[in-house]
Amino acid sequence: MKQFLLVFIGGGFGSMLRFALGKFLNNPQNGIPYGTFAANVIGSLLIGLILGFAAKNDTLSSNQTLLLATGFCGGFTTFSTFAYENHVLLKSGDFMTFAIYTIASFVLGFLAVFFGMYLAK
């Protein structure tokens, strides 16, 4: 039960931060949803750091990893919003923004995880 509570608390904080970032950075007039993009790339970097530190020399307990990686990063990052925003871009015919947003999200997301793991080691 404690593990569920840790994921719940971390996820709540991550979701609130993502919501605030989206309110601050997302603007329908500028095309790319920068808030979701930032949340996903920053979350990827954070999960790389967190899991890298956890694997390095057991610096984080399994409960801390659940709170931070599964909970916070899981709530902070969002694939469903990313998918919906891509749907909106395609439906509006904005194929260039769709391509840039999708490719940049995947490439920078992967690189951020690898960079986080690298920094942790």
Q: What does this molecule look like?
A:
The chain is mainly α and 121 residues long. It has one domain. The protein is built from five helices and no strands. Helix 2 packs antiparallel against helix 3 (62-76) and helix 2 (34-57) packs parallel to helix 5 (95-120). The termini are far apart. The mean pLDDT is 94. It comes from Psychroserpens luteus. InterPro entries: FluC. Pfam families: CRCB. This is Fluoride-specific ion channel FluC.
Average predicted local confidence, pLDDT:
94
Strand content: under 5%
Give the end-to-end Cα distance, rounded to a whole number of Å. Answer: 32 Å
Secondary structure tally, helices: 5
Uncertain stretches: none
